[in-house]
């Protein structure tokens, strides 16, 4: 009998028990570690203990488990002990009255949607111990005004109250109370659910540095009336603008090949959309329930492959503007037969003088863009822009100036009489200067030119063959590139 009692005193991994009103799950019997397990109807202010007791055993509380307080709308504040190293996904999702949370320096990760829809949170501080934050962790927190990151965190920082990775390349979370946002030029990707539930966001500037917009990035941004997606963007994730019910128009840039599932679903105020010629596929329900969508400008000569219910709920009498000569294809194409009013637009095309150029720092080149169009088409406006102006700039005459080594893309965009933008681009690669500059030594000092391998080949930089050289003049040495 004594042996049986002794055996019952020990729990196994995965066992559940309750201590002082909270549920726990054993995650390591060997290390005496437990996670706060799923609880229902927890309300008021709670303090999670450093350790808990089950029978004759003590356990350290090291995790706030998955969905631990999911939907506990009466929960107002939580104190987390320093024994906790992780807050799992959905841990506090929909805790709508949670006004404060202190995350201790012991926590190293915060799971996806951990505090999603915690609408009473006004600020949150990320300690410097945190190395991983899941997408949507603080999404749809309607009254969250700022996210603070403690100094010394090696993985994250805050800019204008927004959470961003330490290299400033990925925007991770925008507080839900923001009304206007300027995304830094260093950002190349907008993470999943970054702006989800920013219902008061009316103004948004996406820089030309951004190449990726993640899944659900702007869903439920119900005050956003317009958004310009730059030509640098190559990927727009599924549900990216789901339920943006004030959005009236959108242009898919000519760098995107697929419109993902539900991208613009339930955008009930969307009236017009421009689909660029680069788009080859439109996935499930991408424009479903866009009940005011009456103008679709499709620039591809070949009808895109459509998934199921792409235009479900869109008026069948919406006008679909298509390129000249493509009527028969669209009229019989699978999925496009949903519509009855196809109208061919006059030809409108742009050619660029160069697809790619290489420049040395401070060099310039003039790019030329030519618009080829039918007589009945007009050019409403045109503009030169640079993606990565820190490397190369461009003026409105098409003159490109190399600023610093690196790569940039120069775009020329012309808008036709229908208000549809058409764009072409040129890739610019900038190298170091190909001439000797700012060498302030005796003019009579001899010049020595060496190959990169150290072989002396000339006494002057004049008429050197294309290549990389080491030049020494007096006591000054410089590497040059000759093209």
Structure description:
The relative contact order is 0.05. This protein is mainly β and 483 residues long. A hairpin with a 4-residue loop joins strand 2 (22-28) and strand 3. The model is unreliable at 1-8 and 436-441 (pLDDT under 50). The protein is flat and about 85 Å long.
Based on CA atoms alone, the radius of gyration comes out at 30 Å
Average pLDDT figure: 92
Structural class: mainly beta
The termini sit apart by: 91 Å
The major sheet is characterized as: 8 strands, mixed
- So how many helices? 2
Poorly predicted ranges: 1-8, 436-441
Helix content: under 10%
Write down the overall geometry.
Answer: flat
Strand content: 35-45%
Kindly state the number of beta strands.
42
